[in-house]
Every structure is written in structure tokens, then in C-alpha cells.
């Protein structure tokens, strides 16, 4: 009787172990992918936004920026199935069988960080954006005025806050007529009277071509553009060729910003706490009368990074720096759009620079 009972118990134990093992496989398969992939995606997206925000704040304080990219994420799921069996016999006719089983699922991720630094990345940061990049961003859906205000430093005689392409200037930069021209071009685009393209040349980089619809060539917007760009009022303006090299006919000079200059420009939208202003930790820009200049007049529709002792609950991204919270409001759609534009430019510019620094791989314990 004892032998028969033990054999039946052993068979049941083996069956139980198989069931546990199959259950463990089902848990560690599709279920683990559904839960972990979304979590990693969310964590990388959130921390990338925080890192970009941190670097904008650093530039406002004239501190050195640093990008630490997530080069790879590797994770291993382990399923451990364990069980035990005990038989207790009190009499030849009566015996008890105890079965014990458990499943342990563990995750062991490894994250590889790559500092974006060295000669290759410096070139990517400091080299002016290519005309092709502007057209690519335009065809990706970015508004023309936002792209021009962030990425272009000069269009013909119009200067776009050139002094703000580096550390915060002490005097107010020139920007008004450039912003007016950018707004006019945006209005023409919204009316369907404008299209953007490229004109290739064997002599140098491609030129940015702005073509006007036939009915728009005599409009008040185009007439004002000719005046702003210094083109003859009598000229039948079919379009504008903005070139980084040769200027002929309807052409005007185009000077783009580097990625670092774009970041410096947008860092003027950081609003530091008054204590840092009084302590001289940030530059105060002053107008001709000596009064502090409100940078929101330039960056207000592009980027606004607020600060305080504690961040509000509803924020898009936030960081702690120098004992202060800095954040972008979740409802500030203009800042969020410009922030996303800057993030895409960073990806485009730094893509070929990956691998230029030491690799740091960190195993993360899982449970």
C-alpha cells in the first residue's frame, strides 16, 4: 500500500511540475513583453526629455551641457520552477502526501550608456544645419515660422537674434523684422499660397526655394516681404531662393544656426529664480534705458521653462538643478512643440556621431 501510494504521489508531483513549468513559460513569454517593452519605452522617452531640458537650463547658467544616450537595452527573463514532495505514514493503511510548488520569474536588464562627446559630436553640434535638414523638417509637418525662428540666424538682411545664438547677451538683440517676415511666410503657407523646396547646385550646398502661388504674387504679404528683404518693389517675385553660397536674381543669403546655437537661443526661455538673478549666476539682458529685457518677447511663442521651489503636478518635463525645480507646463503646447522639434534635430545631427565615446554598461538587478 505504501509503495502504491508513493508511486501515485510521485506521478502527481511530476504532473504538477510540468503544469508549473508550462505556466511559467506562458508568464515569461508574451506577458513579459507586453509589460516590459512599454515600461522601457516610457522610461527612455521621459528621461530623454528630462536630459534635453537639463541641458537647456545648463546653457542658461553658462554651464557645460552633456548628453548621455541610451545605446542599447538588453533584458533576460528567467523562470525558475521548484517543488517538493513529502509522504508521512502513520499506519500501513493511512498515509499523507504533501506537495509544494512555486514559480519564480526574474528579469535582469542591462542598459548601455554612450556619452555623446569627442570630435565627431562637437562637429555635429557646432556645424550649421544643412538646408536639406530644414526642408526635411518642413515636410515632416513642422510649421514654417517655428522652424525659421529656431533654426535660421539670418535671411537676407534680416537678423534673427544673432547675439542669442550663444550665452545670454548683455544687450537686446535685433529680431523684430525677421520675426515679421517669418510670420508673413507662415500666413502665406496657411493660405495655401506658398511651398518650400530645394534647388541643387554643383557649386555648393542646395538652396532653400520658397515658391509663391500665382495669385499671391501681388498680395500685401508678398509686397511687404520684398520690402523687408530689400528687393525692388517693381520685381515680379515668383519665389525666393535662400542660398548659403551664390546669390543671384531673386536670391537672398541664408545663414542657419548650429544645433548648439539653436539650444542657446531656446535657453533664453529659461526663467531662473530671482535669487540666482540677484546672485549674478545668470546674465541679465538690458535695453537701451538699462531696464531688464523680457525674453518672452522673443521666445514666448517658442519656449518657456519656468522655475520654482517645487514643480506643479501637471508638467510635461521637469528637472532639479542648483536646488531649483525647472519645468515645462503640460498645457504649454508651443513649448512642447518646439521641444519636440529640438529633439528631432538632435537625433538627426547626432545620429552618425554615436560610438565616439566610452561605453558604460550597467546591469540592473531585477526581482
Number of helices: 10
CA(first)-CA(last) distance:
44 Å
> What coarse outline follows from CA principal-axis ratios?
globular
Instruction: Going across the biggest sheet, name each strand in turn.
Output: 4-3-8-7-6-5
Which sheet architecture does the biggest sheet show?
A: 6 strands, mixed
Q: Report the helical percentage.
A: 25-40%
Structural class by SSE content: alpha+beta
Detail the poorly predicted runs.
352-362
Strand element count: 12
Hey, roughly how much beta strand do the residues contain? 25-35%
What is the N-to-C order of secondary-structure elements (H for helix, E for strand)?
A: HEEHHHEEHEEHEEHHHEEEHE
Q: Could you report the average pLDDT, rounded to the nearest whole number?
A: 82
Radius of gyration, in Å, reads 31 Å
Explain the overall architecture.
The chain has a domain at 2-117. A six-stranded mixed β-sheet has the order 4-3-8-7-6-5. A three-stranded antiparallel β-sheet has the order 1-2-12. A three-stranded antiparallel β-sheet has the order 9-11-10. Helix 1 (2-60) packs across helix 7, helix 4 (144-151) runs antiparallel to helix 5 and helix 5 (176-190) runs antiparallel to helix 6. 40% of the residues lie in helices and 26% in strands. Strand 3 and strand 4 (158-159) form a beta hairpin. By secondary structure, it is of the alpha+beta class. The protein starts with a helix and ends with a strand.
Amino acid at each position: 500500500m505504501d509503495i502504491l501510494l508513493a508511486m501515485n504521489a510521485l506521478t502527481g508531483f511530476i504532473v504538477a511540475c510540468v503544469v508549473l513549468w508550462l505556466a511559467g513559460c506562458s508568464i515569461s513569454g508574451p506577458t513579459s513583453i507586453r509589460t516590459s517593452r512599454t515600461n522601457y519605452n516610457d522610461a527612455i522617452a521621459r528621461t530623454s526629455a528630462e536630459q534635453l531640458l537639463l541641458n537647456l537650463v545648463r546653457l542658461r547658467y553658462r554651464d557645460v551641457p552633456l548628453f548621455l544616450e541610451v545605446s542599447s537595452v538588453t533584458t533576460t527573463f528567467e523562470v525558475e520552477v521548484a517543488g517538493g514532495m513529502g509522504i508521512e505514514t502513520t499506519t500501513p493503511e493511512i498515509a499523507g502526501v504533501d506537495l509544494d510548488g512555486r514559480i519564480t520569474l526574474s528579469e535582469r536588464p542591462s542598459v548601455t550608456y554612450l556619452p555623446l562627446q569627442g570630435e565627431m559630436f562637437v562637429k555635429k553640434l557646432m556645424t550649421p544645419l544643412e538646408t536639406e535638414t530644414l526642408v526635411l523638417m518642413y515636410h515632416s509637418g513642422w510649421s514654417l515660422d517655428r522652424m525659421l525662428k529656431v533654426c535660421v540666424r539670418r535671411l537676407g538682411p534680416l537678423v534673427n537674434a544673432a547675439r542669442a545664438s550663444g550665452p545670454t547677451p548683455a544687450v537686446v538683440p535685433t529680431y523684430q523684422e525677421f520675426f515679421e517676415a517669418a510670420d508673413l511666410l507662415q500666413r502665406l503657407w496657411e493660405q495655401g499660397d506658398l511651398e518650400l523646396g530645394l534647388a541643387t547646385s554643383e557649386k555648393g550646398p542646395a538652396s532653400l526655394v520658397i515658391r509663391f502661388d500665382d495669385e499671391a504674387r501681388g498680395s500685401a504679404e508678398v509686397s511687404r516681404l520684398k520690402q523687408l528683404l530689400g528687393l525692388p518693389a517693381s520685381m515680379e517675385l515668383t519665389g525666393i531662393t535662400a542660398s548659403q553660397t551664390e546669390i543671384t536674381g531673386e536670391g537672398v543669403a541664408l545663414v542657419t544656426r548650429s544645433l548648439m546655437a539653436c539650444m542657446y537661443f531656446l535657453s533664453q526661455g529659461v526663467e531662473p529664480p530671482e535669487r540666482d538673478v540677484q546672485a549674478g549666476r545668470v546674465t541679465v539682458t538690458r535695453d537701451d534705458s538699462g531696464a531688464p529685457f523680457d525674453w518672452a518677447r522673443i521666445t514666448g511663442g517658442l519656449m518657456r521653462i519656468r522655475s520654482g521651489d517645487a514643480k506643479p503636478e501637471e508638467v510635461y518635463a521637469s528637472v532639479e538643478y542648483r536646488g531649483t525645480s525647472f519645468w515645462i507646463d503640460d498645457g504649454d503646447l508651443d513649448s512642447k512643440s518646439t521641444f519636440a522639434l529640438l529633439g528631432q534635430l538632435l537625433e538627426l545631427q547626432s545620429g552618425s556621431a554615436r560610438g565616439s565615446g566610452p561605453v558604460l554598461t550597467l546591469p540592473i538587478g531585477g526581482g
